[in-house]
Design goal:
This protein has about 70 residues and is an all-alpha fold. It is about 85% helix and about 0% strand.
């Protein structure tokens, strides 16, 4: 493929794994939440994304704290 000559292997890996991997992860998460709601499992459909968001924010704060302690 001609475009590969202009994109480094590191950039190709970032695009394929980083960007596209993020889209597929979000798609799976979105599908699961919508499936809970479609099946009338409103508790799971609302708690799952709320806990996911809180967990992500908590891990972000923990990462910043650890990085601060290590520097």
């Amino acid at each position: 493929f001609a475009a590969r000559a202009f994109i480094s292997s590191t950039a190709q890996l970032f695009l394929a794994v980083g960007i596209l991997g993020g889209f597929t992860t979000y798609s799976s998460f979105n599908h699961e939440v919508l499936e809970f709601l479609r099946q009338g499992q409103w508790g799971r459909g609302l708690v799952y994304p709320a806990l996911t968001l809180l967990g992500c924010l908590g891990m972000g704060v923990l990462g910043i704290w650890v990085a601060d302690k290590l520097s």
